[in-house]
Structure formats: structure tokens, C-alpha cells
Amino acid sequence: MRKEEKTKIIESLAAQLDETPNFYLADISGLNAENTARLRRACFEKQIKLVVVKNTLLRKALDKKANAETELLYPILEGPSAVMFTESASTPAKLIKEFGAKYGKPVLKGAFVQECAYIGVNQLDALVSIKSREELIGDIIGLLQSPAQNVISALQANGGGKIAGIVKTLSEKE
Question: What is the pLDDT of residues 27-41, one digit of tens each?
Fold first, then answer.
């Protein structure tokens, strides 16, 4: 591969790293052509971009993004590596877990999700349970609405007329 081609690939990877906040590194070696095609199709359906890259080129692209967390990924950049770029934090982890249970591969090498590096297969369950920003906002809104709904329910129940009477009495005393 010529230097111009390598530079173009590095720039493309760096651009992808900038526009996609989360990515996973996986080992897909050993999958036959049929299973690799299934994996690529599953990735496409779940809006995950799967790219097989040379580790040295990925490392140079990561150098452009350089921060303390991405540097933690350098030691795992050995052997065959596939990169899964995604907007969703946990979708690739779920796919890796499901596909890995069925076919034995892919195997998680590491991930960079929500500005944190996760290294090793033992992190897969933690990555599966990560909630997206929208899910977290929904949970917070649900938690905030619950007490307010309880107060409104109490006011509208049998005690609602009593509270209205108490408020009316208090306003008349002034």
C-alpha cells in the first residue's frame, strides 16, 4: 500500500472517529464468509458501521483524537481488529454478545463509549447495560413525574374536596 493510500485511510478513520462518538474493537477472525456476511448484514440493520482495519493505521487515527482514555486502547491493537462505529452506546455490545453466543465470534477486544475506554471481554455485560442519552432522560423525567402525579392523585381523591374547603377557609380568615 502506498503512503498516499495510507494517509487517506488514516484521515477517513479520523473523520469517522470525530463524527461517531462510540466505537468497539472486536476480533472477527475465524468467521467463515457466510457468517461474516451475516455479521455485516446485522451491523447494517442496526446502523453500525463495521470496518476491518490495520492496527497501525487505526492507532495513527486515534493519535489525532488523542486523549488519556483512547490511549488505553493502544495495548489491544494487536492481531485482527474490526471496528464497529455507532451512535448508540450499547447496540454493538448486544450484537457482539448475541452473535458471539451463536457463532463464537466476534470477541470484544475493547470499546470507547461515552468518553470512557472499556478493555477486555469481561466488560461486555457492562457495555450491554449502558443506557443511551435518550433513555436516561426518559428515566429522569419518569422519576420527576412520579411524585407530582402522587400529589395530584391525592388532591383529586376523596380528600380533594376537604383540601379545597381548607384552602377556602384559610382565604376567608385573611
Answer: 888 888 888 888 888
> Edge-to-edge, what's the strand order for the sheet holding 81-86?
49-53, 81-86, 22-27, 107-113, 116-119
Torsion angle, alpha carbons of 64, 57, 59, 87, to 10: 70
Task: Assess whether 99 and 77 both reside in one domain.
Answer: yes
**pLDDT, tens digit (0-9, with 9 covering 90-100), for 91-144:** 888 888 888 888 878 888 888 887 788 888 877 777 777 777 777 788 788 877
Nearest Cα neighbor of 21 from 137, 92, 114, 136 is 114
- Residue-range definition of the domain harbouring residue 150: 134-173
User: How many Å apart are CA 83 and CA 70, to the nearest integer?
Assistant: 14
Cis peptide before 106 (omega within 30 of 0): yes
Total structural domains within the chain:
2
Domain co-membership, 60 together with 139: no
Quick check: 66 and 97 in contact, CB under 8 A?
Answer: no
